[in-house]
Amino acid sequence: MATQTFVKGKRTGRPTQRVAQAARKKQSKTQVVFFDYRDERKLKRFINEQGKIIPRRITGLSAKEQRLLTKSIKWARHLAIIPFVSDQIR
């Protein structure tokens, strides 16, 4: 069942197309603003069991926060603060 459009008070027989609205970005699930590469406990919250970085759609971080998080995790891996892979995979 198609809806009708109105053009200057007259009905046209054409169905309307619904325009998708931009979804509002949710507030960050974590209230972390600064990711310190030395804080192992905080960084491990964003790494899954395999040692992969959890994606932004799951963490709920903004793009900027996700980039900062990724840099911190990679820097911590490089300095051997956190492992590249988990013990289960080794």
CATH structural class of the domain at 28-83: Few Secondary Structures
Q: Could you state the order of secondary-structure elements as H and E?
A: EEHHH
Taking the sheet with the most strands, its summary is: 2 strands, antiparallel
SS-based class: alpha+beta
Query: The CATH topology of the domain at 28-83 is what?
Result: 30s Ribosomal Protein S18
* Architecture (CATH level 2) name of the domain at 28-83: Irregular
Strand content: 5-15%
Mean pLDDT: 82
3D shape: elongated
CATH H level of the domain at 28-83: which superfamily? Ribosomal protein S18
| Rg over C-alpha atoms, rounded to the nearest angstrom | 23 Å
Biggest sheet strand order reads 1-2
The quaternary state of the protein chains shown equals: single chain
Sequence stretches where pLDDT stays below 50 over 5 or more residues: none
What is the tally of helical segments? 3
The count of strands amounts to: 2
Account of the protein in words:
With 90 residues, this protein is an alpha+beta fold. Helices cover 28% and strands 11% of the residues. The chain contains 3 helices and 2 strands. The protein is elongated and about 70 Å long. The mean pLDDT is 82.
